[in-house]
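Lecture 7 notes: from sequence to structure.

We start with a single chain of 209 residues. Read the sequence below before looking at the structure.
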Amino acid sequence: MSLEMTFLGTGSAYPSPARGASALALRRDGQCWLFDCGEGTQTQLMRSHLRAARITKIFITHLHGDHFFGLPGLLCTLSLQSNPEASKSPVDIYGPLGLRSFLWRSLELSHSQLLFPYAVHELVPTQDQCPAEEFKDFSGLDRDEVLPQGPPGRVLHLDPGEDSYLLVEDEQLVVRAFRLFHRIPSFGFVLEEKPRPGKLNVQKLKDLG
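Now the structure, written as tokens:
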């Protein structure tokens, strides 16, 4: 398995002409996974050797603007560069509770229609992830409204036994989210490669005793 990381933005809360807002791309077996999507991320992608059309998963650490204000624009640009395909797999987006409503409303208010499907998988935070006065419960967002075209996705709760959230698992790796303490609920993401059995020449070992 080949993994390659590209730092697209490291400018923290205040981007500059030389440093974009937070974004990191991980290239894996022809796919591109994006971690955070601050404002200007799509421009940084154009300056890099990466192909934005290869993005299949997006992970948002927390809902401070410098980490996700670039997401609606990136999705719209990807749509302009794509062709409608009924069989195309959705772009999976992972992030804190409230992200689905933000994306749906941003695209709805701007009359943006994506030519590809996407799914938003929300992580339910715990109250001890931030100062008590900063914690807001977004579980009731849009509860009384009908969202006929809202994106699908899972609602993920903390697994107490693992003290983490299981996001992705395939034959090669596992991706989990862990709680971080910040001014608002925040998450870190860990990619763990599964053990791979080695290849041994049994006869050669026998010959060597």
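The CA atoms of residues 200 and 206 lie 11 Å apart. Keep this in mind for problem set 3.
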